[in-house]
């Protein structure tokens, strides 16, 4: 990536703002966000830009710039759509493989595979730090998409046949693709199962899970995320953990933010840990424990 040339704080802010706006306008003018050399280049440029960590004052000025504030919600929507298209594209490539070995080799070539591996490793270590004796056996992942890499990485990281991952997505096509993909990879339906439902749906029985993940793209804004969390926690057992993916610094232009506030207590959650990576891992991680009994509202 070409470095941003700064000649003082004001110039630095302007350079960042102009780069962000340029990426946004290019993406918003694109007829679609399916993977292509130009689309891939734009997203790589945007992610690289937002992965930088300027000082707090510079970051605050960039994020509060009226032009950035104006485009931020739609930019996150474009990122969400682009991520879905990329994952669906690679999931289909894996599904077309003739053998389990070929499918697993194809999965390793997904451009962000290493990032997912490192993100899940960070999250598993974070969980172990707050619950060292936690006998984790059952996971639910809300917003798993067509390429359920988090669940696949969890299964590989824990390397236990007793671990099961329940993947939930509201998009029926994503679920169908993910089921076909896991079959191509050779995963057992007992350890990797799927359900088509929205994250807040009462049709999902969350009371049997040790850990429930909330994907970064579930909920388009902080308010919506809070509403979904409230619905989810009502159906979880006390002592279970909620792992929520969030973002910090300029990365909040890519993903909605989980606000860790006193309001979490009102829905039966007690925050335990927040991890903000400063390296190539883009997502932050918020871990909270469920304190309210199943079925109890705020």
From TrEMBL:
GO BP term, pick one: nicotianamine biosynthetic process
Keyword terms: S-adenosyl-L-methionine, Transferase
PROSITE patterns reported in the protein's UniProt record: NAS
Pfam families the UniProt entry points to: NAS
Keyword Iron-sulfur: no
GO terms, molecular function: nicotianamine synthase activity
Record carries keyword Mitochondrion: no
Protein family per UniProt: Belongs to the nicotianamine synthase (NAS)-like family.
Name used for this protein in its record: Nicotianamine synthase
Organism: Letharia columbiana
């Amino acid at each position: 990536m070409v470095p941003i040339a700064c000649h003082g704080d004001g110039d630095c802010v302007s350079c960042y703002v102009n780069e962000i706006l340029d990426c946004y306008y290019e993406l918003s003018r694109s007829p679609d966000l399916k993977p292509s050399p130009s689309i891939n280049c734009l997203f790589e440029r945007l992610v690289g830009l937002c992965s930088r960590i300027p000082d707090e004052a510079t970051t605050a000025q960039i994020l509060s710039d009226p032009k950035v504030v104006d485009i931020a919600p739609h930019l996150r929507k474009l990122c969400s759509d682009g991520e879905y298209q990329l994952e669906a594209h690679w999931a289909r490539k894996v599904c077309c493989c003739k053998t389990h070995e070929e499918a697993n080799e194809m999965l390793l070539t997904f451009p962000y595979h290493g990032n997912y591996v490192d993100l899940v490793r960070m999250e598993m270590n974070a969980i172990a730090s707050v619950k060292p004796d936690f006998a984790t056996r059952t996971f639910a992942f809300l917003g798993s998409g067509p390429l359920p890499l988090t669940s696949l990485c969890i299964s590989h990281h824990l390397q236990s046949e007793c671990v099961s991952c329940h993947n939930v997505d509201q998009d029926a096509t994503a679920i169908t693709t993910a089921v076909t993909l896991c079959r191509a990879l050779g995963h057992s339906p007992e350890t990797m199962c799927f359900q088509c439902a929205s994250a807040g749906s009462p049709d999902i029985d969350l009371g049997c899970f040790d850990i429930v993940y909330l994907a970064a793209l579930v909920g388009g804004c902080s308010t919506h995320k809070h509403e979904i969390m409230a619905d989810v926690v009502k159906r979880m057992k006390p002592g279970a953990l909620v792992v929520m993916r969030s973002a910090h610094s300029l990365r909040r232009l890519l993903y909605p933010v989980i606000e860790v506030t006193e309001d979490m207590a009102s829905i039966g959650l007690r925050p335990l840990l927040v991890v903000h990576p400063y390296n190539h891992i883009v997502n932050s991680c918020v871990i909270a424990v469920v304190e309210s009994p199943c079925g109890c509202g705020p």
